[in-house]
# Entry
Amino acid sequence: MTFTEFNLRNELAKAIETAGFKEPSPIQEQAIPIVLAGKDVVGQAQTGTGKTAAFGLPILNKLELDGSVEAVVIVPTRELANQVSDEIFRFGKFLGITTAAVYGGSSYSRQLKHIEKASVVVATPGRFLDLLRGGKIDIAPKYVVLDEADEMLDMGFLDDIKEIFTFMPSDRQTLLFSATMPQAIKDLAKRILIDPEFITITKNEMANANITQSFYVVEEYERDEALIRLLDFKNPSKAIIFCRMKVEVDRITTMLVSQGYAAKGLHGDMEQRQREETIRAFKRNLEILVATDVAARGLDVNDVSHVFNYHLPFDSESYVHRIGRTGRAGKEGLAVSIVTPAEFRGLLKIQKAVGSKLTAKEIPSVHEVKGKKNNELLEKIEKADVSETVIELVDKLKEEYDLSTIAYKLATLLEDELKIAGNEKIGKNMSEISKIESRAKNDRGGDRGRRSRGGYRGGNRSRNSSSSRNGGDRGGRNSSSSRNGGGDRNRRR
Ligand code: ADP
Ligand code: MG
# Structure
């Protein structure tokens, strides 16, 4: 299938060609004809599947170009407002349209001026509602799009969105796009869409064959060391490290930077300017982005080589979502998850959802990483182009030393590249992993029982017959260092 089959305006066909799009993605193939036909649509597809063009192209095709704001797209974050506005402008530029990105933290008067000139407004819910409530804008868009609806739900925008729709004309066409479809989004869709078509791009269609997925099993206290070792071994050109919490993002970023890695953190508590700067750096040349799911949602970076899950996400949809950031645009991607024995049941759930492609691996030892680095260094030396100045330099050295001494000295200067931090062995080997796996598979009832008594860190103590009583005594709330586990405390008794 090609874009020409949609019979879009010439100006759009030209923009599609300029953008280098060869064929429509699955969500585009399904959504574009339905939107063109004027129907409301609920579209579910993972990040990076081309949802912006799926609604942007058919809407642009239908614009009357009457000088009014004809379409409004509501997105969760300022970054996305800019990104989606840019993308729609790129498609619409041969039609001579302008777009306006509208969000909090920037001046009202300037935004109002931009809105006045725009055919398409891309806005975050809070600021948009402000403008509507204050009667600052009087618009009647024919097309209203909710983009990344689940994210807006997570960010607490549901009520704002409902109120926004009280200001929208009732004879509009409404489109809702979301990566996941929780009940609250389905309910919202029922409320604001009329007889919508549902389009779901299933996981199998999305499951990216280009992504190699592995997991490594470590004790909680080994997590940082494991991350560093894996970074050293895999040597990513561009990696996202996913964390569960903002404080974790900050801590890991600081740790990585202090050890010489080029890393920056991204989360919701940062100033907008700082976030934009980080995203720009990551698109350009920053090696490592440490981020929460929310902050990284919808970001459009095509050449991510590795995704690391510092912690497993809570559900398989988020997992699929996270790893979908790599292996894009026909490139190979690697997804690496660090898992503790206590998280193993979560891992099994995810494995069930994504299939057998997610497999266990052992963390390479210092020796193995060194071997790999040695080889890389040898290759680098082999490939190096020798310049005139260097020949002069070596000739000078030759007056004093023999050639092997010179070579040893030069290689010593390079040794920094061969230094590997941490213990020789980190994490579990294959036979330990399979034991942990069968325990996690067989031990379900018992685990639930222990949990209800409050021993939430009970996994490791499960072999201890008195564990559940002890767990109760401790109330399970003892959050002191997990490094020593329960064993230490038991010994003290
Ligand atoms: P989503 O909103 O689903 O996360 P985007 O609309 O941001 O995805 O698209 C992701 C990337 O893929 C963007 O860089 C976009 O330009 C590109 N893209 C979208 N559709 C196509 C296509 N049909 N062919 C090639 N690239 C595409
Ligand atoms: Mg999007």
Summary: Residues 228 and 421 are 8 Å apart (CA to CA).
